[in-house]
Amino acid sequence: MRHPIFLAALAGGALVLGGCMGSEKAEVNKALDSVNAVDATNLSDIMLTVGDPREAVSYFTRATSEHPDRIDLQRGLAKSMVRAGQADAAIGVWNRVLAMPAANNDDKVSLADAQIRAGKWDEAKATLNTIPPTHETFERYKLEAMVADSEKNWKKADSFYETAVGLTTRPSSVLNNWGFSKLSRGDAKGAEKLFSEALTYDSASFTTKNNLVMARAAQHKYDLPVVDMTQTERAKLLYTAALSAIKQGDVAIGKGLLQDAVDTSPVYFEEAARALEALDAGGKRG
Questions:
Q1: Among 74, 85, 65, 66, which residue's Cα sits nearest to residue 44?
Q2: Is residue 156 part of a domain?
Q3: Domain for residue 81, yes or no?
Q4: What is d(CA 109, CA 79) in angstroms, rounded to the nearest whole number?
Q5: How far from 64 is each of 30, 42, 44, 76, 96, CA to CA, in Å?
């Protein structure tokens, strides 16, 4: 017959061991939860930067359905929708974010950005007006400038653009926007200066190079600016200069630039060749 004290000790040992195993299991689960949280955060960051926008939308749609109260996932869904060109859908998600307790002024700025992308300028202006003036960020003033531009309030637009440029170390995009604003209101010289400055921050932007050529052409300066460019880019920029010259009545110069574009292009430049043929045909008829 086994001693009752020994049995009690065994039972007590089993309880202690069970308690230890339960404690260890809880610790393991806690550690796994932490790892999963880190992994999820990293995955969210990847989806918002290098991931395919449509895949990002799918990922955040699933994530928000599983964790609807997580504001970081809701923000991720809205941002990925904007990247995927779904600005209208993003507006609804940003409104959902703003209804959450942890929402902030940056979320309002993001809502205004989505509204502008969706062409809802009045709504964007109303959203920006709800943000206190003490919230001074690059994104906020960039959007303020764009809204002022849309209203042709040039003085206010210039002030906002200038403020935005001073709030970032990478102002190339806002300088390009500002330059295009100047060009649209007939200040080609001012636009040229801003496009040139933008290229000092981002020398690879073909859009800015093309805008610079248009600004110079508006002043009847058809020679290409001294900027870094590939042979393909050179051909395209010559084409832009040619079209600008022709539109301004400098047809002979435009024809020469078209020929240069065709000769410069490393591959067959169909648009330039067609334009050149059309000019030749028109000259023969004349």
A1: 74
A2: no
A3: yes
A4: 12
A5: 22, 16, 12, 9, 12
Eight-state DSSP code of residue 226 = S
Give residue-wise pLDDT tens across range 124-174: 999 999 999 999 999 999 999 999 999 999 999 999 999 999 999 999 999
Nearest to 140 by CA among 182, 101, 111, 98: 111
**63 closest CA partner among 51, 73, 54, 49:** 73
105: domain range? 45-118
CA distance 48 to 80: 6
The length of the chain in residues reads 286
Q: How far is CA 61 from CA 44, 66, 156, in A?
A: 12, 9, 39
CA–CA separation, 128 and 143 (whole Å): 8
Outline where DSSP puts E strands in 198-281.
none
- pTM for the model stands at 0.79
In angstroms, the CA 57 to CA 43 distance is 13
CB 128 within 8 A of CB 147: yes
* Residue 131 belongs to a domain: no
> 103: closest CA among 113, 95, 114?
95
What is the number of other CB atoms lying within 10 angstroms of the CB of residue 137?
A: 15
In the 8-state DSSP scheme, what is residue 250? -
Euclidean distance between CA atoms 75 and 56, whole angstroms? 12
The amino acid sitting at 25 is K
Contact 199, 208 (CB under 8 A): yes
> Is residue 111 in a domain?
yes
Tally of domains in the chain = 1
Structure tokens of 259? 């020929």
Q: What is the mean pLDDT of residues 14-29?
A: 48
- Residues 21, 26, 32, CA angle at the centre, nearest 5°? 125
